[in-house]
Each structure stands twice: as C-alpha cells, then as structure tokens.
Design brief:
heterodimer; A: 341 residues; mainly alpha; MetI-like fold; two-stranded antiparallel ribbon; 14 helices; B: 598 residues; alpha+beta; D-Maltodextrin-Binding Protein, domain 2; Dipeptide-binding Protein, domain 3; eight-stranded mixed β-sheet; four-stranded mixed β-sheet; 16 helices; disordered N terminus; disordered C terminus
C-alpha cells in the first residue's frame, strides 16, 4: 500500500512538472529569444521583502542591476530603484500549448527582472529553461514512444515466430547496437540541407533517437515473449485453436507491459540528454530556440561553471525530472512483472 | 630599406658582444678566422637572466613531426621554432627582419640577387659545424619536387625556383627570376637542415619519414636554442639546452638560460587552464577572453597580459560565384541576393560590431571594417571608414536594391526581394567554436531587425570546411583567418581569385567580377614592387576595394591574451606567432628552484 502511495506521489509530481513546462509561456517572464545586450551574464536577481531601511513589503521586489564601471560581467544593485513584482501581467507574445496566442504572464515588473540571471547574450535564463523544457521533454517523450513502438513490434515478432525471422531481426538489432553512430550521423548531416527550421530539426532529433534506440527494447521484449509463449496457458490456448494474433494480443504482450513502462521511465531522461550530443553535430535544435540540450552545452566550459554558476540551473531543472522518472522506473520494477510471471 | 638599419644595429650589437667576450674589438671583423674556437655571436638586449630551471607549457595537441619539410600544423611549427633557426628572421616584436644565421645580407639594385654572409663558427646542436654546403643542401631539398616540402611554393618566384649558389666558405648567392616584394622576409621560417644527418635519407628518397617523434634524440639536430631530448607519447615532449647556440645576452653569456623546455599535451582549453592555475605549467597563451578574465580574477603568482589585437580577423561571408547546373531554385534565388553589393553593404551596416567585441571578447578585441587589424601596424589602411551601426542606412541600401517589407500575421516585419520572396538564409558556423557561434547568434538577431530570417547551422568543423571549399553547399558562414606574418603576401591565397582560400569563390579560372580582377592585379603588382611605400599604396587599395564590396563582412579581431608566472623573466608576448616563445632563448626562471616539479 505504502509503495502504491509513493508511486502515486511521484506520478502526481511529474504530472505537475510537465504541466508547468507545457504552460511555459505563462510562467516565463520574457521571450526566451530576446537579447538584452546591456546585461550579459547577469546573475539571478534576488527577490526581497525587506528594503534598505528594513521595511517589510507585502509585494516582493528586486533591485535593478547595473554593470560596474569598466567591467564586463560584474554587476551591482541599484538600491535607489525598486522593481516590485506584479502578477498576471501582459507581456511578450507567446502561444499556449503551441497554438493559443496569449500575452498573459504569471509575473512581471516595470523593468527587466531576471529570476535566474541571463546568458552571455543577455537572454533571460528563467524563460529559456521553461521553453527549453518544452522542446526537450517533448522530444524525449516522442523519441521514447517511437523507440519502444519499434522495439515492441520487432521484439514480439522475433520472439513469437522464432526461426529465421528471429535470426534476422536479432542480428539486425545487434548490428544497430554495434554501429558507430557518431560517424553515421556525420554522414547524415552532410546529406541534409544546411538549413533546418527548428520544427524540422525537432522531428529529426526525435526520428534519429527513435531509429537508433529500438534495438535494446526489442531484445528485452523478445526475451519475455520467448518465455511467455511456452507457458502452459498459452499452449492451452493454442491447443484450443487460438490464432497467433489473438495469442500475442491476449496472452503474451500483456506480459511485456511492465518492462515497457520501466524502459520508458529509463529512456526518457536518457533521450533528453541525447539531444545535447546531436546539437553538437548540427543535428539538434538550432539557436536561438532554447532546449535543455543546448542550454547545458554552454556549461561545458570550465570558466562558465566557475564564474557564472547560474548557467548550471538548466541542469538543476533536469534533476526533479530525472529523479521522478527514475523513481517511477524503480517502483514499476518493484511492482513489476517478475513476481507475476 | 630596413636592411641597412638592421645591419647597423647588428654590427653595434656584434661589437659589444665581441668586446664582452674576447676583449678583441673590431679587428676580427676584417678577416675570416680559421680558428675553430672563434664564434660570431648575435647579442640580444634584454634583462640579463640566470641559468638553470625549466619552463613548462601546454600544447593543445601533440606535434605531428619534428621534420620541417612536412610540418604544416601550427603545433609542430611552434615546437620547431625552438629547435631550428633560419638565415634571416622576422623579429616578432618589431615585425622587421633581423640577421639570424646570416650575419648580413646585400640586395642588388634590381632586386634579383641576395648575397648572404653566414656567421662564423656555427655548430648544429650535435656539435657538427655548419657551412655553406648545408645551406645549398637545404635549398636543394626544399626545392626538390619529389620531397613535396611545404616550403616549396614560397621559393618559386615568377614561376622559377630560387637559385642558391656558393660564393665562398661563408657566402651564398640567391638569384630570383623576378623581383620579390617580400624581400628578405622570404627567408624567415626556412630552417637550415644538417647535411651530415639528412643527406643519406635524402639520397634514399625517404626523407619525409625521417625525424618523426620516435627518432632517437641524437639523430635530430638543429640550430635553434633547444634540442630534442625525450618524447613520451600522450604526455610530454622534453627539449634541452643547445650548448652550441649562437646568441648571447648583452653581457656575453651564451643563451638560452633555461636547461629545459617541456611541452605537455593538454587537448582542451579547459585542461590548459586547470594546469596553469595549479602551477603545473608556467606559461599559457591563445586564451579566450572569458578564460582570461577568469584567470585574471584568481591571479595567484602569475600575471595575465593583453598583448593587443593580433592578426586574426573574423568575418561573415556569403557564397558568391556561379552555381552548377544541379543548384536548386532556392539556391539560385539566394545567390542573386548575395551577389547584390547593396545587400552585403546592408548586412554590414546592420551588424553591431561593438556588441560583438563587448559580448564575445569581453571588450578585449577590436571591431573591424577591413582585413588588416590594428595589430598589423605597418600595413593597416587607416583611411578605411568605420561607419557606426545604422539600421536606417541598411534599410536605405536594401530599398535601393529593390527590396521591400511587409508585416507578417504575427506582427513581425518580413523583408521581401524584388520578386516578393521573403529573404531567408542560413549562416554556418563551427559547432565547437563558442566565440563564433555567439557572433552568429548576435548577427542573427541584428538581421532580424531588418526583417531577414536567418537560421544558424552549427556544423562539425571538418564538414563545415568541406561545405565551404568543396561542395560549396552553404549560404553564408562565419569564419576567421589568422595571417602568420604581418606582410600582405601571407594572405595572397585569400585575396587572389585563383587562391584556394579565396573563400567566397575559391579557385576561379578567371576573376568573376571586375573588382576581383583589380585585386588580382594589385596583389600581383605589389609582389614585384620593391619599396614598402609603393607596396603599401597598392595594398591600401586592396583593403579599400574589399571594404567597399564586402565579399567578407569583417567583424572583429580578438586580442592576444597570455599569462605567465611572475618568476619568468624577459616574458614579452607579441601579436605575431608564436606569441610567447618567440624569445624563448631569453626566457629565464628568476629563482633557481623556479622549475616546476614533474
């Protein structure tokens, strides 16, 4: 029972996180692509309730940042001006869920307030993290769906029919696992047109990850199908004249449900990160569109980590997602198939 | 030109050195000495250092070879510059030539004959004496077609190889088929080869396999301040003091001061920074501005120096030139915009170069409107206008070229060409170069304000180069070039329409435009002019044509940023390569234990 509750909790938390990301435009403060060239690498602004005289303000406020004279990235707060936060304000245009044109934002202020600081081009990191999540999470979900679907079909066919079909499909899977993907992707990039709109790039990422990822789930599914088809109730059903399709659908594939769910929970975070690698080969989502992948790739440099710690925040945004998904995976595994089979 | 001045300086130095060394004065100059112990030193000014210790620095890659004939990568060249020496050398600080292994030289009035006089008593690092036959051998090897030396092209002047002839035991005569504007700068970087070690492999035809990193140290000899001692694959390359080196300090002490020079291999900028920060290396160079700021802030026991703008110029260029028959309708349309000079001028006017210098180089760089950077003091054309960014002027250019604007349903402005097609193109960059990606992102945003939709295509570097130079399948690209010398001839491959670095339209049979034809003519003409003033005048015109026609939209040039431990003496970085090791023979450790532990 307790385990069940933990599972429900995890599921609800994940659902809430996904909802926030889905409504990124509403929660974000600015257009994630807008450059503010006067504020490169500005640190996150502190939200305050007490002002310099020690007075309490009911409405949180921030002090605007100003570049220190002669410096490139050292800021000081301008204590003379207060920027109180306002709620449910009208701001930059965006499309809710990708189609509803809106201008309503949860928070805003009279001048630029960067809750998570800015990047090297003065773009608001908080907004970029939220919008980047849309791309990355969706890519992770779709790619996982694609990989599992192919893996499931191929694995089931190989396990159920056996013989030469099994041989061919499994050797293919091994080939896929053994191929040097990096080099193939280089070659692929050379064939593609130079310009990929963000939308094309997005589907390309999903397609590539899905196409590369099917082999492992296929092998897992095949194993389960192999053992399941020899069970007595399956043999009995076969003896009563059940068709192969009925056997698969009714008796065998339900056994793979848990392994698929566990795989999904493991693969989603993995595929979110795969996008970083693809960006590097020019196959990812191009600038200025943010994604967690390209946000994180800027923190690969040592001095960024050392001088601008807030550039790591996209990494922290990943943490609850990864923990959520991995927790989900392990609780699925615990509830999972082995004891049932 | 500068020869007489340099010669005078040399004699001055030479005399003081002799006086210091032997107390003999000027008599020795008059007659050649057969005395084996007599050596003609080159004496250098600078702080007098102390002997001993070593300097450790990191290379971003392992050198590929120690063989000057095939070394073409920057890392190998940098290592070679400490192992080898040339007849006449370009002083990296003054950017002028100065005597090296040749103690003096004369140029005939028609500019066709160079008579070089060798220093006496020169010895290779293995103790074997150097004579004129080594010089003749060296040029024979460089010019031999079968050797495929990378220096060969430099030695073909006016279609004919340079002839080297021995006049007497100390004198060589070089004859050119045509006057050569570069003059004696030509000899810089042409390292002399030891005949006693290389003649046999040369006769056997396997010279190119010789002097790899695995060669036994006693098989490698040169005339540079250091000699090869040890190579540990994947870790380090150790050089030791050349006891026969031919330079002294002002007090007559034989250089170099250091016992050892150690190159560690650290593949990434981050690895180099960590090593420098931890004190493992003594010198760091080729720093990006952000890393420079970062190191300056933590400075403990080292000093960071900004040597000023170097010779690297970053630029945006469009694909010009003809399309082949397979080109898509889209590519043909794009080519039409790019060929319109007003379109390129509009792009140039819209780019915020100050923002590039500020955001990409943290202010440690300069905005550029031409290919010659302020670091190249002698050749920059200061008359080139520096118009500030102006979207209004950019729109004016576009209007004149028949472009117009309309509002999109989302309220954004869209630029349309004369046929009503929205202007949309891509800019390719190297995915691994954070600086140029940032530049491209800034340009993208600048051009958006003109209604152009620009997409960025970060590519892996080799496939980027392949697209630009081979398949020519791209719209626009942000790249950088760094001349290896201040002289315009080092960029001749870029400006001449036949050149393979004529990036916007390489390897043309005939110049595609009249201004490219004029550049070709000017570059050809300056090659054979003999005075600096005349050459400068011609090259100024080239710079003006480039600034006017914008085949490359010049963006910015980064400063040369370096750092060294405070314990290192005579550290004087320059803006010419090799930025920090050019005076390696004079570098020294102030404290005896100065060298770092392995």
């Amino acid at each position: 029972m307790n385990r069940k509750r933990a599972f429900t909790m995890l599921f609800l938390i994940l659902a809430a996180l996904h909802l926030i990301i889905a409504c990124a435009g509403f929660f974000a403060t600015y257009n994630p692509e807008e450059q503010n060239r006067e504020l490169p690498f500005a640190p996150p602004m502190r939200l305050r309730f007490f002002d310099g005289q020690g007075y309490l303000h009911a409405r949180p406020f921030a002090y605007p940042l100003r570049l220190r004279e002669g410096s490139f990235d050292e800021y000081e707060e301008d204590r003379a001006v207060k920027l109180p936060l306002h709620f449910f304000v009208s701001g930059a245009r965006y499309r809710l869920f990708g189609f509803l044109p809106m201008r309503l934002h949860l928070i805003g202020a009279e001048a630029q307030v960067h809750l998570a600081g800015t990047d090297g081009l003065g773009r608001d990191l908080f907004s970029r993290i939220l919008f980047g999540g849309q791309i990355s999470i969706l890519a992770g979900l779709l790619a996982t769906g694609l990989a599992l679907f192919f893996g499931w079909c191929i694995g089931a066919a190989a396990g159920f029919y056996g013989g030469w079909i099994d041989e061919i499909l499994m050797r293919c899977a091994e080939l896929f696992l053994a191929l040097p993907w990096l080099y193939l992707l280089f070659a692929l990039r050379a064939f593609l047109p130079l310009t990929l709109s963000p939308l094309h790039a997005f589907f390309l990422v999903v397609g590539i990850i899905g196409a590369v990822g099917w082999a492992r789930p296929a092998r897992l599914v095949r194993g389960i199908v192999l053992s399941a088809k020899e069970r007595e109730y399956v043999r009995a059903a076969r003896g009563f004249g059940a068709s192969p399709f009925y056997l698969l659908w009714r008796h065998i594939l339900p056994q793979t449900r848990n392994i698929l769910l566990t795989q999904a929970a493991i693969l989603i975070p993995q595929y979110v990160l795969a996008e970083v690698t693809l960006s590097f080969l020019g196959l990812g989502v191009p600038e200025p569109t943010p994604s967690w992948g390209n946000l994180l790739s800027s923190s690969q440099q040592y001095r960024v980590l050392a001088s601008y710690w807030w550039m790591l925040l996209p990494g922290f945004a990943l943490v609850p997602f990864f923990l959520g998904y991995l927790g989900l995976a392990s609780s699925l595994q615990e509830q999972g198939a082995p004891s049932n089979i | 030109m500068d020869v007489s001045k340099a010669k005078f300086l040399y004699y001055l130095l030479f005399l003081t050195s002799l006086a210091g060394n032997f107390g003999l004065g000027s008599v020795l100059l008059a007659q050649p000495q057969s005395d084996k112990t007599h050596e003609e030193f080159l004496s250098l000014n600078g702080e007098t250092g102390r002997y001993g210790g070593r300097i450790v620095l990191a290379l971003r890659a392992e050198p590929k070879t120690l063989n000057p004939l095939i070394a073409s990568d920057a890392v190998s060249r940098e290592v070679l510059s400490t192992l080898q020496a040339d007849l006449i050398h370009i002083n990296r600080a003054s950017q002028l030539t100065e005597p090296a292994l040749a103690k003096s030289w004369k140029v005939s009035s028609d500019g066709l004959r160079y008579t070089l006089k060798l220093r006496q008593g020169l010895r290779f690092s293995d103790g074997h004496p150097l004579d004129v036959d080594d010089v003749i051998f060296t040029f024979q090897v460089y010019l031999d077609e079968k050797v495929h030396a990378s220096q060969r092209d430099l030695l073909i002047v006016g279609g004919k190889p340079i002839l080297a002839r021995k006049l007497d035991a100390q004198t060589v005569l070089f004859t050119l088929a045509k006057p050569y504007g570069v003059g004696e700068r030509l000899f810089d970087g042409l390292f002399l080869l030891p005949r006693h070690l290389l003649e046999k492999p040369y006769r056997e035809g396997n010279l190119n396999q010789f002097w790899g990193l695995t060669t036994a140290p006693e098989q490698v000899a040169g005339l540079g301040p250091f000699r090869f001692k040890e190579y540990v694959p994947g870790q380090k390359l150790v050089l030791e003091r050349n006891p026969y080196y031919w330079k002294t300090d002002a007090k007559g002490n034989r250089l170099p001061y250091l016992d050892q020079l150690v190159f560690l291999f650290a593949p990434s900028a981050d690895a180099q920074i960590l090593r420098f920060q931890s004190g493992e290396t003594d010198i760091i160079s080729r720093l990006a501005a952000e890393n420079f700021t970062f190191l300056s802030r933590q400075s403990r026991g080292y000093t960071m120096m900004d040597a000023g703008p170097g010779l690297e110029y970053n630029f945006l260029f469009f694909r010009l030139g003809d399309l082949d028959s397979k080109a898509s309708a889209e590519a043909i349309k794009h080519a039409k915009w790019f060929r319109e000079v007003k379109f390129r001028q509009a792009v140039s006017a819209a780019i915020d170069r100050d923002a590039i210098v500020r955001l990409v180089y943290q202010g440690r760089g300069v905005a550029l409107w031409g290919p010659v950077t302020p670091g190249n003091k002698r050749w920059i054309d200061t008359a080139i206008p520096h118009p500030p960014r102006s979207l209004e002027r950019a729109r004016q250019f576009l209007r004149e070229a028949g472009f117009s604007w309309k509002k999109s349903p989302a309220g954004e402005e869209i630029l349309l060409d004369a046929e009503g097609t929205p202007v949309e193109f891509s800019i390719a960059t190297s995915a691994s170069n954070a600086d140029r990606n940032k530049m491209a992102a800034l340009i993208q945003d600048d051009l958006k304000q003109l209604g152009m939709r620009v997409q960025l295509a970060p590519l892996e570097f080799r496939s980027l180069l392949d697209r630009v130079t081979q398949t020519r399948d791209y719209d626009a690209c942000v790249l950088a070039l760094a001349s290896f010398d201040a002289d315009p001839n080092s960029d001749i491959n870029v400006w001449k329409s036949t050149g393979n670095n004529h990036l916007w339209n390489p390897n043309q049979m005939h110049p595609a435009t009249s201004w490219e034809a004029e550049i070709d003519r000017l570059m050809e003409q300056q090659l054979s002019e003999q005075t600096f003033e005349k050459r400068k005048h011609l090259y100024d015109r080239v710079q003006e044509i480039l600034a006017e026609n914008q085949p490359m939209v010049f963006l910015a040039s980064p400063d040369i940023l370096v750092g060294a431990k405070n314990s290192i003496g005579n550290f004087r970085p320059t803006v010419l390569e090799p930025y920090v090791l050019w005076n390696v023979e004079q570098l020294f450790q102030r404290s005896t234990e100065g060298g770092t532990s392995p």
